[in-house]
From TrEMBL:
Gene3D superfamilies: P-loop containing nucleotide triphosphate hydrolases. It comes from Rugosibacter aromaticivorans. InterPro entries: P-loop_NTPase, Put_endonuclease_Z1-dom. Residues 396-626 form the Putative endonuclease Z1 domain. This is Putative endonuclease Z1 domain-containing protein. Pfam families: Z1.
Length: 904
């Protein structure tokens, strides 16, 4: 049998000290060693990719914002002698788990910096620190805070409290990770004491104490059994709990009864670190008292108040964190005891992170990953009730299942049969509907299994006479035929693939345990098809996730990104990953990916400008998208709300375009007249086929923007943007303007005449459905199109007109981080606002097998790019919170995330 693992290990060992190391070096060494392992004719591209992940993958250290007014020595841990035993054990564990050494080394540096932002546990007196770490969904936040826990324990913190989510399965998963990475022993009562993780390599270590287990959260019974002062423990103590009112009350009662001094009701000499891994669980309108955030946060503050020495660090996957968004006023936000006034640390993801940018934004990788659900509405409406009957599976879901089966077969060929593989189906928040979906999927998988069993060993031509086998072949041709695995080999592996599938319902009512760790301990791997709602949407890690099918509709940012279970690391099977989503959801994901990246880049800019966490909190509250995040949460209670808005570093696009061509004729005339007017004053600079003007008077641009007709859905944005531009006009005095064209015309692209022989080539853009079920709406319905992903501008468009030396500097900085230049970087580098004029050709793209359909041609559109640094310039918008507005927001597609799973 070909020993691919030994082959890979040999390459790693041969190259681990090579610096600098390139992919070409890996390929050369792989081809040199292949004959030694009898792999002369084996397609080794995936091995090369895996070795690249281990040896070439890098991770930047990220950036921090700190309170500029506070006195704090962030190098205290470098000035005292600390034996880094726990960290050293964890560092070795990560490397043994396949983490690249360069990434692990960087994680060590990052966790050291975050530790420095905490307090020295040996400092005298009473103190507290409050911070926030902003990571990425499924990017290693848990690994990061286990590293921080390890270093904090080495430095002298005696109690670590980890708040791990609102559901049992999430808490259990976190307890398992803490057991493996820090405790070193299995806390499961049935396997208690068994060495795992860091304990396997270091059986004589100082084992920390855990007061919770994989089976049991902290409760009154555990508290009564303990009945002990924390001072009796010589090793660090860990508690992993749900974010739950009753759990926090039990913990508080035990700490107060057994650990406080009677004279002051305070806990002395127990430096405590609290990690809140659900800091972005933002909904405040829940009906469930036990997870009501207002009461939950009160109980968290109660626990913190018991300690004379405490640090609270929230971990969030989005800068739109609830600590910035939820408070009703700025004063309330800044006065909140959990507000990260001391520091915010923004983590960078490793270069091999399979994240929102790659899935939704990148113009090369995104089309290979995303698939559109356009056939499910008649089977399972996005707004269905809890008793909705499911009569069948949509064809798109069957295709997703086919992709999972074929993808699993390819992984078997790649010798991944001992690695987990998963598929996610998230199409309802209701338990009973999830149960029906499971029944239909079970029947369909059984049909596929029977068909494969009787046909996979037959000659190809004979096997493909079976409809199910033909469907698998079609999905192979559609999705995977570009790979190195031929159909003949895949057909032989199909039965092993489909036979391995186990189907799970993952919700609060299910007794089916999706337990990857149990499988590993029993020498097995799981091929799991998981069906669920909130439990799949928040926190739960699906190991080896390959195929995701999500037919849900929400615009809540924290819910959107947490639903993205497909993010993570897929080094040796990234080419097999597919995501099925409705077109509008794709747009929202793209939008939030861009908005989130903008905020991350703003943190870097604010660091350069010596700003503080308070400034960032205020900036997030004024972000144009914060209105949506807060709207449903608050409008049920307030009669009138005033929102502040800030456009610094933002891009505004007229991505909503009327389906009535007559409404575009005035804009066509306007952009021609404006071009002539600009040309009279100053000749443009030609950049390819685009035209660029620098330093055009603000007044001229203002008049053009006033006359340009925005769709009514964007009129509010237009008014706010004009107000903002007027406020910054004195600072900049002028704007840059470009008429954007394709560099060359293709057979499908039309031209738009500007002046005599001067023209631009129209940019073709696909559009998706909006408020109606059909993509095409009649003018009588006041229909409109939205450009796919709510974005028609490209990275190239945003860079137009920038000096060569600026673009070279940005490219050099991006290459150091192993990433392309972020679009916001071009905005932050601009000296003034930038107005772009586009003419679009709108098409509907039904699929690979059908021709594109022209919907509208010569459609004018605008982009406004705002420079950065104007954090304090605010415009305001008042919204009256009446029932009609709330219903409108709900009708635009917001699931109530707090009713997930528990409705039956």
């Amino acid at each position: 049998m070909r020993n691919l693992n030994d082959f890979e290990t040999a390459i790693v060992l041969a190259l681990r000290n090579t610096s600098p190391l390139t992919v070409a070096d890996i390929e050369q060494k792989a081809r040199m060693l292949a004959p030694v392992f009898g792999l002369d004719d084996y397609p080794i591209e995936q091995i090369i990719k895996s070795v690249e992940t281990k040896l070439v993958t890098t991770m930047s250290e990220g950036i921090s914002l700190v309170d500029q007014c506070a006195e704090h020595d962030d190098a205290w841990h470098e000035k005292k002698e600390i034996s880094w035993d726990y960290w050293s054990d964890y560092e070795g564990h990560l490397k043994s788990e396949g983490w690249g050494p360069r990434v692990v080394n960087t994680m060590g540096d990052v966790t050291g910096k975050i530790l420095g932002l905490l307090k020295n546990p040996e400092d005298a007196g009473e103190w507290k620190r409050r911070g926030l770490v902003i990571g990425h969904v499924q990017s290693g936040k848990t690994a990061n805070y286990i590293g921080l826990i390890s270093k904090a324990a080495d430095a002298g913190y005696k109690l670590i409290i980890v708040i791990a989510g609102i559901h049992n399965n999430l808490r259990t998963q976190t307890q398992q990770r803490v057991d493996e990475g820090f405790i070193g022993r299995n806390s499961d009562p049935n396997r208690r004491g068994k060495l795992i993780g860091v304990g396997l390599d270091h059986p004589n270590r100082r084992f920390p104490v855990t007061l919770t287990t994989t089976d049991k959260d902290f409760d009154k019974r555990i508290a009564n059994q303990l009945g002990a002062d924390l001072q009796v423990y010589k090793q660090p103590v860990v508690v992993v709990i749900k974010k739950n009112v009753s759990t926090l009350k039990s913990l508080y009662a035990w700490l107060k009864e057994w650990n406080t001094r009677e004279s002051a009701d305070k806990i002395d000499n127990i430096p405590m670190l609290m990690i809140d891994d659900e800091a972005d669980n933002a909904s405040i309108n829940t009906k469930k008292e036990d997870i009501n955030p207002t009461e939950t946060n009160k109980q968290i503050r109660n626990v913190l108040s018991l300690f004379r020495k405490s640090c609270y660090v929230g971990y969030t996957a989005t800068p739109f964190a609830n600590i910035f968004i939820n408070p009703d006023t700025e004063d309330e936000m800044l006065g909140h005891d959990l507000f990260p006034r001391d520091f915010i640390y923004c983590l960078d993801a490793p270069t091999n992170y399979f994240g929102p940018q790659k899935v939704f934004v990148d113009e090369v990788s995104s089309p290979a990953i995303l698939r559109t659900i356009d056939d499910a509405e008649h089977i399972i409406s996005l707004k269905h009730k809890k008793d909705h009957p499911i009569s069948d599976l949509p064809r798109s879901l069957k295709n997703a299942i086919h992709a999972f089966i074929v993808g699993k077969a390819i992984r078997i060929i790649r010798d991944h049969r001992n690695k987990h593989a998963s598929m996610m189906v998230n199409a309802s928040r209701f338990v009973d509907v999830q149960r029906q979906i499971r029944e239909h999927i079970s029947l369909y998988v059984k049909e596929m299994k029977n068909a494969v069993m009787f046909n996979y060993a037959l000659p190809e031509a004979q096997a493909l006479k079976n409809a199910h086998m033909q469907a698998l072949r079609e999905i192979y041709d559609e999705e995977f035929s570009d790979g190195s695995e031929p159909w003949q080999d895949i057909q032989k592996a199909l039965y092993e693939a489909v036979d391995a599938i186990k189907i799970f319902v993952v919700n609060s009512k299910s007794d089916e345990a999706l337990d990857y760790r149990w499988a590993e301990e029993n020498g097995e791997s799981l091929t799991a098809l998981a069906i669920g709602g909130l439990s799949l949407s928040r926190g739960l890690t699906l190991e080896g996730l390959m195929v995701s099918y999500m037919y849900r509709n929400t615009k809540m940012y924290d819910t959107l990104m947490q639903m993205g279970r497909w993010f993570g690391y897929r080094a040796d099977y990234e080419d097999l990953c597919r995501v099925w989503l409705p077109s509008e959801s794709q747009g929202w994901y793209s939008h939030i990916a861009e908005a989130t990246e903008e905020l991350r880049q703003q943190i870097k800019q604010m660091r350069r400008d010596r700003m503080s966490p308070i400034d960032f909190g205020l900036y997030v509250r004024a972000h144009p998208d914060a209105l949506l995040v807060t709207a449903l949460n608050k409008m049920r209670y307030a009669e009138r709300l005033t929102f502040t808005r800030n456009f610094s570093g933002r891009l505004l696009q007229t991505y909503i375009l009327s389906s009535n061509d007559n409404l575009h004729s005035d804009n066509r005339s306007l952009i021609k007249d404006f071009y002539s007017d600009l040309k009279k004053d100053k000749a443009p600079v030609s950049i390819g086929n685009s035209f660029f003007w620098e330093k055009i008077s603000w007044e001229k641009a203002e008049q053009f923007l006033i006359q340009f007709k925005f769709h009514k859905e964007l009129q509010g944005e237009k008014a706010l943007a004009l107000d903002y531009l007027r406020k910054i006009a004195d600072k900049y005095g002028a704007v840059d303007i470009a008429y954007v064209s394709l560099d060359k015309q293709s057979s499908n692209n039309s031209t738009f005449s500007l002046f005599e022989n001067e023209k631009i080539f129209c940019q073709e853009r696909a559009v998706g459905k909006t408020k109606e079920n059909s993509i095409k709406q009649t003018p009588e319905q006041n229909g409109y199109y939205t450009s796919n992903k709510q974005n028609f501008m490209t990275t190239r468009d945003e860079a137009l007109g920038l000096a060569v030396e600026i673009k070279e500097r940005l490219n050099e900085e991006a290459e150091k981080n192993g990433k392309p230049v972020a679009r916001i970087d071009y905005r932050l580098a601009r000296a003034r606002p930038f107005l772009t004029v586009h003419v679009l050709r709108l098409v509907h793209k039904p699929g690979k097998s059908e021709p594109d359909e022209l919907l509208l041609d010569e459609v004018p559109a605008l982009g406004i790019s705002f420079p950065g640094g104007d954090y304090s310039v605010m415009v305001t918008v008042d919204r009256v919170a009446n029932r009609i507005l709330v219903k409108q927001l709900q009708d635009e597609g917001l699931d109530d995330p707090d009713e997930e799973d528990d409705d039956s």
